[in-house]
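Summary of Year 1 activities. Much of the first year was spent building the evaluation harness for sequence design. The harness presents a backbone, in tokenized form, and records the residue chosen at every position. We chose the following record to illustrate the format because it has been used consistently in internal testing since the harness was completed.
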């Protein structure tokens, strides 16, 4: 597999974390920020780091960004700069453009002008923390769409020793158990006879309202 080339624009907390993580995973990363200071701070962690204003079309063109496989735009506060940058990158023909949105409206604009994926890190993390607060058993919460989510929850005491047929989350909550995580192993097609053990994690998919009922009972 050829090494994919990534560029990340905007070295705020989110952009920096994306750039450093990709770099740690062994990928080539070009980090871009308008601030010289931010570029100096990140230079040691990525393949290349350049101080450039990403609303400068010529500058982006001369960096050869269209040859990168994925470009991540992580400019949050300056919504105008985020939109202009996205538009320029789209016109340059970047194959995959992932953009961080500050709010729903910003996200809508980004989708309309051609962002391939719009991410809402603060909103999504807020949702996860809230679900974890409802119950520490809830380890992960991922919204699949406006209507459906996946939740990972630690099996509560009442579920231990029972099998999936006895728990019957399908009839009780209209949700499906996708997988059971146990001791670092994943059973991805659990059957009705599989018994839940202490510390098992259930991966469940369902409609948000049904997941909410299940979360309260499994809290
Ligand atoms: P986070 O919450 O992830 O820290 P944020 O949403 O607050 O980030 P900002 O601080 O607004 O994001 O911007 C992130 C970075 O983007 C900053 O380092 C800023 O210098 C950079 N940035 C803003 N505008 C531009 C631009 N036009 N070109 C390049 N970099 C930019």
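For this record, the design step produced the sequence shown next.
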């Amino acid at each position: 597999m050829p090494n994919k080339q990534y560029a990340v624009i905007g070295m705020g907390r989110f952009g920096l974390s994306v750039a450093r993580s990709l770099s740690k995973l062994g990928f080539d990363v070009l980090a871009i920020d308008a601030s010289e200071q931010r570029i100096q701070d990140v230079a040691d962690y990525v393949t290349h780091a350049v101080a450039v204003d990403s609303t400068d079309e010529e500058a982006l063109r001369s960096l050869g960004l269209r040859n990168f496989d994925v470009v991540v735009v992580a400019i949050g506060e300056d919504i105008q700069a985020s939109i202009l940058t996205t538009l320029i990158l789209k016109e340059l023909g970047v194959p995959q453009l992932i953009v961080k949105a500050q709010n729903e409206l910003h996200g809508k604009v980004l989708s309309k002008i051609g962002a391939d994926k719009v991410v809402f890190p603060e909103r999504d993390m807020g949702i996860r923390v809230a679900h974890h607060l409802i119950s520490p058993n809830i380890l992960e919460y991922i919204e699949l769409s406006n209507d459906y989510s996946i939740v990972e929850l630690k099996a509560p005491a009442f579920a231990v020793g029972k099998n999936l047929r006895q728990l019957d989350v399908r009839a009780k909550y209209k949700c499906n158990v996708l997988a059971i995580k146990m001791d670092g192993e994943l059973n991805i097609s659990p059957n009705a006879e599989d018994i839940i053990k202490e510390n098992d994690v259930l991966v469940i998919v369902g409609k948000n309202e049904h997941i909410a009922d299940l979360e309260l009972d499994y809290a």
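The chain has two domains: 5-119, 124-217. Quantitative recovery figures across the full test set are reported in Table 2.
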